[in-house]
Amino acid sequence: MLEELKKKVADVANRLASEELVRGASGNVSTRDEETGLVVITPTKAALGSVTPDILCVVDMDGNVLEGGKPSSSTKFHLKIMKNRPEIKAVVHTHSPYATAFSVANEAIPVINIEVSSKIRGDIKVSPYAQNGSDIEAENITATLGKANAVLMQNHGAVAVAEDLDKALLNSFIVEEAAKMYSIVRSMGSTATTIEPKK
Questions:
Q1: Which contiguous run of DSSP H or E holds residue 143?
Q2: Which conformational region is residue 4 in: left (phi greater than 0), alpha (psi within -120 to 50 degrees), or beta?
Q3: 198 occurs within a structural domain
């Protein structure tokens, strides 16, 4: 079922690990099939550096498992985002170090460069902390994300979304690069200038 999408999810999951945006079983990846509406998502406790298509889970938009084992504990917020914004077909959750540092500081990353402006389309805000996998967590992330394409999860990590997996992966890179850049600017004793997000 959805074999091509499974290959893409596995590739993205492994790329996140190779680029050090996740370590071990942290983070998760999902994408929704436009034709069937079904979602392929990484399983719970999967080491993202060694994901193969055969271990992935297929769920419907209500979270019912149709194939595979137990899906990621983050499944609720992946589905909530997709329901709230039907144009979003891919969600990538990372524990990238610079972005996670800002999530621990409970501090948003402003629109500091053209990539954040054109791809993320707004400040990378911090979603209030809630228990992992809970309905409240899903509500908080979706509400804080709004119409932007990335959000930080307080004391947890980052979430990037897009119309497809390649763009969601790119947005994950943009979030971490912006967090690193903003951290460097702050360490220089300077405040970052900001630009308007692309409409």
A1: helix 135-145
A2: alpha
A3: no
DSSP states along 84-103: H-TT--EEEEE--HHHHHHH
Domain count, the chain: 1
Short-list 107, 89, 90, CA closest to 98: 107
Q: Which domain holds residue 118?
A: 3-187
Q: Render pLDDT for 93-119 as a digit per residue (tens, 0 to 9).
A: 999 999 999 999 999 999 999 999 999
181: amino acid identity, one letter: M
CA–CA dist 158, 63 (Å, integer): 22
Residue 197 domain flag: no
- Which residues, including other chains, have CB under 8 Å from residue 85's CB and lie 6 or more apart? 147, 161
**89, 35 Cβ separation under 8 angstroms:** no
Taking a C-beta distance cutoff of 8 angstroms, is the pair 198, 114 a contact?
no
> pTM of the predicted model, to two decimals?
0.96
In this predicted model, what pLDDT tens digit does every residue of 46-67 receive, in sequence order?
A: 999 999 999 999 999 999 999 9
Residue 196 lies in a domain: no
State the CATH number of the domain containing residue 90.
3.40.225.10
Asked if residue 171 belongs to a domain, the reply is yes
Query: Read out DSSP for 123-190?
Result: -B-EEPP--TT-HHHHHHHHHHHTTSSEEEETTTEEEEEESSHHHHHHHHHHHHHHHHHHHHHHHTT-
Please give the Cα distance from 91 to 105 (Å, whole number). 23
